[in-house]
Amino acid sequence: MNWYLMVWRRYAEFDGRSRRTEYWMFVLFNFLAILVLALIGGVGLAISQDYGGVLFIPLGIYVLATVIPGLAVGVRRFHDTGRSGWLLLVFMLVGMIPFIGLIGAIIQIVFLCQDSNVGTNQYGLNPKLPEQAVGVFAGSVGFTSMGLGLGAQPQPPTVESNFGFCHSCGIRLKDASPFCGNCGGRV
Length: 187
Fold this sequence. Notes:
The protein is flat, with a radius of gyration of 22 Å. About 45% of the residues lie in helices and about 0% in strands. α2 packs antiparallel against α4 and α5 runs antiparallel to α6. It has a domain of about 110 residues. By secondary structure, it is an all-alpha fold.
């Protein structure tokens, strides 16, 4: 549920990256919410032909409310795989063409299921492993090779005033606040 709520906290944020879990949990909870609201509307319509359709209004409001965060998380997911977010618009336009739209939808699902780019790409830090971008490796900071035939090992760069990363959205923290300035989550 936290993954679903994270998308709502990042409502219209089209820059950055989103993990597969964030995207697919949003899709799952979105589908379940639409299903429940449609069932409520259907039951209302079955009970009263005249006024039962009023119960479809919450479904319409919910669908309209989820358009922007759905597009935003889709764009961030494409960013996470190293692709431009405009590709989502291309897939939406191709989806209007009868047979080619099916092929485009399959390609889009394959792109959305791919793993994150390792490290930092042009869209930001890897939300899955943000510490990779800093170059600090646990257990190796400040230690040199012991000369066991491996040769001299390069030392990772030191980071000044590193307060860590938010566990919810993966952004690098700039101060020692107990809350993330980006998503508002507790650090």
